[in-house]
Amino acid sequence: MQNLMDSKTLAYINMYAVLGTLENLCEIVPEASELLQGKKPISIGLEVKDGPAATLYFKNGKCRMEQGCSNCDVKLPFSSCEKFNGLIDGTVTPIPSKGFTHIKFLLKEFTALTDLLSKYMRASEEDLKDPVFFERSTMLMLYTIGVAIAQIGNNDEIGKFSAKYIADGSVMMGIKNGPAVELVCKDHRLVTLKKAPEKYRAAMIFESIETARALFDGNVNALTCIGTGKIEMHGLVSMLDNVNRILDRVALYLA
User: Fold this and answer.
1) Which among 117, 123, 203, 241 has the fewest CB atoms less than 10 Å away?
2) pTM (predicted TM-score)
3) CA–centroid distance for 139 within its chain
4) How many Cβ atoms are within 10 Å of 244's Cβ, its own excluded?
5) What is the pLDDT along the chain (255 residues), one digit of tens a residue?
6) Sign of torsion over alpha carbons 132, 136, 137, 141
7) How far lies 34's CA from each of 58, 112, 132, 180, in Å?
């Protein structure tokens, strides 16, 4: 069994969990939406050899991601998962294979959006003193972590081992009276939907946004929070147990 990060799994996380959170950034953070206002609709496709492929669509101040990139204005190909991961950590500058006329958007608005996302995802202690920033940052982390759980469960060897024991159905992970994600399991494959499910077989609910943040930052132990009632668990225990095993690996990949 692997103990360390797998570059292919990291590529799937970077594509769908990290860049996918641009959708939520444009919904939650007005500054992000403002960057896109007055701009012509544009789509950016990212295709990784032997890895993920997706297209980001930007229109009317909003962003959405779809799998695949057969129809896009700008196409960024990556020869390996390692090269794509380099885009996310800032060590690789991609060269478009299509859409050179849109290079200005890539260098200006798209870079500004990813920088803003990084600011919220890797927040400084000073920024987190602002309650509005704190709430937005924690909400974005919830969505990123929720999608990362599915990517680890589907691609990482240890994650797949845990996913093998998750029964079909939905698991809700969310903040009490706040945002939530739905982890859907079918035939031991996971898909994350960025909404609270209407029905679920198991749920993990954080008492407050502060509890969620402390857990996401690794400042508290989940078992301790369950013992003190700061995290509520409902439903099928085996589903929650195996989802939590996958969740333990999220910090390794998103560190």
Assistant:
1) 241
2) 0.94
3) 11
4) 17
5) 345 789 999 999 999 999 999 999 999 999 999 999 989 999 999 999 999 999 999 999 999 999 999 889 999 999 999 999 999 998 998 899 999 999 999 999 999 999 999 999 999 999 999 999 999 999 999 999 999 999 999 999 999 999 999 999 999 999 999 999 999 999 999 999 999 999 999 999 999 999 999 989 888 877 788 888 899 999 999 999 999 999 989 989 998
6) positive
7) 12, 11, 18, 25
